[in-house]
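Format notes (please read before filing issues)

Several people have asked whether sequences and structure tokens are stored in separate files. They are not. Every record keeps both together, in the order shown below: the sequence lines, then the token lines. Line labels are part of the format and must not be stripped during preprocessing.
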Amino acid sequence: MKFITIDKKDWAGGIDKSRKTYQVFGPVQDENGCQIKPLPPDVYPLMDAGVTVMSPKSVLFPQTEKMLTATLDETREDHHVMKPVEKEDTPRVVLGIRPYDARAIQLVKLNFDNPDYQDPYWCKAYERTTFVGLAVTHPDPCDFSTSTGCGPFSEEGLDVLMADLDDRYLAKILTQKGEDWAGACGFDTEADAAESQALFDILRKEAEKNITASVDTDRLSEKSILDLHEAPFWDDVAFSCINCGTCTYVCPTCWCFDIQDETKHKTATRFRNWDSCMSPLFTHHASGHNPRGSKVQRVRQRFMHKLKYFVDKYDQGIMCVGCGRCVASCPVNIDIREVCKTMNNYESK
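Then the structure lines:
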């Protein structure tokens, strides 16, 4: 375990040094709010931006990703043969990722990188990405991360965890990736490990005290799937839903996607695009049948997946990190905390 201090006067210069080795991502402001994006040479991350509108999952799992391409020119010997699209292999660093978003990536990893299946696109992106986290010292009102196995100073999934100390950052180096990034930046001012850890503990306890929202999940694993599936409260939960899908797009742990082929002139391209279980088309069969044709069925699927199916399959808590994005973004005020409470306390008759 190693701690370093980074004077904020040296922060931009260190980032510029790292650009020789890393493609840099971080929070920036655009017309849609604060987003995690690649940073051009003259742009630096907004480290005090708070909760970004979208999570950093798109760094590893782009909203639209080219996978394969083929020529349709029949004069070419390799026509109609799908070939992998060339990908960049430059190391990347995500600056200012919040601890709950780093944990979310670890939950998504269960789907894309497991003993049965390794998604090559996701795994290669993950391998070349370094995550430099910024602890949450002033939690958002919708933050309930301490209820989800995470918290404002959680280290899970991070290579570096930093705390903002006004004129400087105190950084805890957690992995070799983190050590390499700090070296590329020229950040090498070591701090006393015992004193720094004690300060982290004080800041963590203070931040955790400021998180007032919570959810109870202790009884979800003991519930019967069929009892919850057939529970009478789903009509009430789904009543106001307009199936916009906002909750699924802002969620850092949603991993659903669709594969589409498109042609333009003499080129065919296969894309992977984000999809949403809240869309009627998500389960629409070619036969015309839709096993989740009604709104209430789709709402039930979303919450059952997050709060029950995932719990039973992976035994790693709920498929939620408590970032509060879906709570803040839902246009009709559906609150996952209330749904979780309802499911956790439900008793079948």
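For reference, the curators noted about this record: The chain is about 30% helix and 20% strand. The radius of gyration is 22 Å.
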